[in-house]
């Protein structure tokens, strides 16, 4: 019969494994190995015999291949080793030949047997046979989440077809892919159920059928759930994944997503890379993502991608609902590939400080037409105030307007929302409330639609079957019967489905029958036993069989009843509900409150950044939702949340902890009423990996060989297993052998070992195992074969134990140990070579060999990986390169910190300190100077506490200068360095001396200040003083004490020490010193007050003394100063104090008193003197005098020089800001540009420019102004004066500029207007006019002679006509008219009579115009009362002497204004004129108004006075002359 053959390589490997596991350091193990060694020898003898039997003729070496004696020896030695291997191979080949021959014979026999059996089967197939179960199904009882296989064997002819049933229902593998698998192999039928759940408990049957009959086999499967089962896979279990999809792809997961941390509102991606064979772009792998064992589907909140060797899940809008265990399941050819990791989502920043986090898992239940029950999970409150309630908001789908559903916060995590609109869809969200504020809103719920479930059920048409005489079936739908119903029936089963302290939810069943008409409900309540029913929903038309009642009183029991109502009427009342009370007899909520606190909490090690936490479930669970776990660093006060979503199980892995830090944990249970009390805190636990054996050492290197021994070195394990590596064990074997031999029975503590008793010329392999408290770890990979031969080269051997320190983004330090073999001379230096990982091109980093055994490497690329090697140098040359180092990535560890140098504030010790970013329980801080371990050195001392180590210098000096480094063992390379320079050391020595020899630190040294009354205060201020401080003042080497004339005091709170001298005189000149003693600290401060410094202090003291005396009476609290009003009026102001009602205040200028219009009011505390229209004439010394019977005070202000310039600049600042734009004004003399402002004076710094060139005042360009404007006039303009004009008003700080472009059409229009005005002025100048001599009114006695004479002027000579009562007067004897020399016109009336009374007038006119002057003549008789003078005539008439023919006219009043109106600017713009230069001649008042749109001056240039013979003032004029009759 055939037999099993074990190949030689498998057999020997098995021997090797047995040897490895038998590596125990006891005598029994040694005995075992001895026996195994003898066994190996017997095998070698057999191999030798086989080799001899299969030997072939010897091979003759050709002459050209003849070797020398040394070459022959080497060849024979190598051949001996090779022949050993060849003998083994030859023996194995021979044995394989024999085995192959036996297998061939066996196959021939099997083939013959099969042919004969086939013939027999063909004969049996002809006999029909019904199905028969040879092996029936067996019952099974299994645990949940384990697979089960039901199988049976059935016979029959023809071959039966087997179908599987579960509880009588056919099992369909396609209905649940991956759940069931049906197989049929060699007549054995099987049903495989993967990952059973409790619902798989049932009776399963296999039914075999062929044409001759049916056979059935049944068995019961029972699935049990273990206590505390259901934990998630990050606790060691696999999630329940319900779907499996067949696939023909071979998939291997590579990089897998790790435990992740996110924050609300952020985004995160979980990704796995994979290798897919075959990789078909159009057929991506089938991947499924699960959260907490629930299948995820793509949506706006979940994005999935598979392809290109990547499976990625993206959560673009994180919320705490997304926290949980995420599992990726990839369907492969052999089943599924899965990976799981936890995602933590923390709270976003709160809406207000101290506000709680957002609730989560908002869902809507019990959806009806106008009612829905919203439920959620409460957030964790760690350091925040307790939650007092929740607000529920709703929003219609498609909108963004949220409406708050409850007016007052609800205290439980459920709320019935009513008042919805039928057919509308809604989203809901929840906000938590505490004493600090309202939280951010939760994620909105899924969309729900308000529909009547009972109405939908009715419309779907429930059917009833009625049998008639057992023969006929009549099918009737409920809706068919509803059509005949009008008034509905009463509701049934009325009860309270939700009872809480704040509300009660009533539920009932809709009536049956209900009718097709729309239905609503009316609810009534009464206090139980009273029968006084009261309607509840008076204003609400209720359509759902649910309703929340809020306004129930505590302590009362209520009953309820419901009516069904439609358009036809109301039903009878339902049966009353049982008594309902919001609270029980003890006053507690029903169901009663939060659960009890969880039990004992136990924390154990897990990994270097996580802890495994377990706890006992609460004794009173009360419908638990889950648990919240909180953590706290030992010694800290603040707790932090470990999870942000209630966790269902009572064990949890807390991730993201700081390695080496110690923590305590607590747990709270959660239900809809909130959080329970905190559990007791766990015992403190340090974050360390769970204890395990160390990993394998690596990097075995040969350091030297003397022909009988080899010295080895290796690198320590990368992972120590949570405890210190205490021993190493070395095994060896011949390179061509299979058996490992122990080298050392006693533990080796160093990583260098010399292996003795070796055979020279042989090749050996070595492996090393590390041991710690947990045991012996796995062995290392066998080293490369090493030849045992004596080293006699002159160059040194390789350096070894390459390590790295201070790895940063662009630099690192490489360290190594000196070669064990030095060669012919001592090692003088080293070369370091570097290459990028994967490259064989090494670059030497140092041009000259370094004598020390470390090298600072810089210029690295961040994130790049490098390898290094070291070559030692002696006088004979460069030795062998060391083994290539492990790859190192140029990137600093997260949280890496550097060494800090400082001085202890208490002791003054100078130290170097490092806080490690990572540490474990076995870690040690190893300090070095210039990369040589310091060890026990009297110059320094090392102390370590927690994550911090400090190196303190005993007596630091220059010998301590150098580079100090520290390495933290058993970490991923935590290290740092610091170079202590001479400057830094000197600085720290000074600080150390200050701490060890303390002085009282001073904020301010000794100083002085002059106080009121002329007192002088000497003071200093210390940073800090104790109540026991002592001090003394020394003046001119004599101690001064507090007494008459001086007062000494101090204030501990402010650190001020002071001495006040009441009367400061010349005797106080000298040196002042304060000496302070405060505990061990002392200091002194001095002040030299002599010479000019003393004189200044004395002068100030005397002044203050006088000031004090002055202020005893009325005085100026603020001396005279000036301000400028908005209208540019200069105000000289001052403030007075200590005044009385009888205090006098007077103003003076140059000793002349000024009496202002408004007397000063000293009682107001302020007085001011206005100076309007300020100009140079207002310069002078102004003085204010304040006096009464108590004294007198004076304040002066000199308005000249700089003070005058400051006032002008202040005026210019206001005027410049108020300046208008330049406006155009045409005159007969030229074109004028005017700039109106609040005030103008020629002292202001004003510059006119034309085309950026400054304009100087001249006959051509006249510059002037009035109090209301500044102007510039272009006389007789020409085209040269075209261009841009500007005025610049400077206030000493800012220049105000206004411009006008006088070109183009603007110039043309202005020039035409100028010509017109010029012509009009010429005409006005030469027209006929009365220059003077005529009165307005003449009163004369009868029989007197009247002479009216005047002077006229005109060019050419005007014509003169006299009128009486508008009738021309002719010359005769009674009335004589004369006109002499074209200048004097007169009308003489001889012996006037009353008939001569009337209105006389003279008309003087030439070709340019004229004027008409009227005179009123009154004649009275002798003896009559003289008439009252009119138009300003004197009350006492002046009689003309008889000898005088003409009567003397009465002087007339000033002439009224011209009858021709002239536009006038407002007063604010046109103050009284003040001309800078002679103003051009203006036209008389009769001159027409210019066409320019700008207003004319308020007062045009005054009209020229008339020359008159009589003293009569000028009279008014009237034009045009009335027409003659």
Task: Outline the structure in words.
By secondary structure, the chain is mainly beta. Helices cover 12% and strands 39% of the residues. The chain is built from nine helices and 99 strands. The strands form 25 sheets. It has a five-stranded mixed β-sheet, with no helix packed on it. Mean pLDDT is 81; it is low at 1-65, 228-246, 585-591 and 1431-1525.
Strand order of the largest sheet: 2-9-8-4-5
Radius of gyration: 60 Å
Main sheet: strands, sense, barrel: 5 strands, mixed
- The counted number of beta strands is 99
Percentage of β-strand residues = 35-45%
Query: What is the typical, i.e. mean, pLDDT?
Result: 81
Low-confidence stretches: 1-65, 228-246, 585-591, 1431-1525
Task: Supply the number of helical segments.
Answer: 9
Look at the helices and sheets and give the structural class: mainly beta
What form results from the Cα inertia axes?
A: extended
The termini sit apart by: 173 Å
Specify the helix fraction band. Answer: 10-25%
Describe this structure in a few short sentences:
By secondary structure, this protein is mainly beta. The protein has 9 helices and 99 strands.
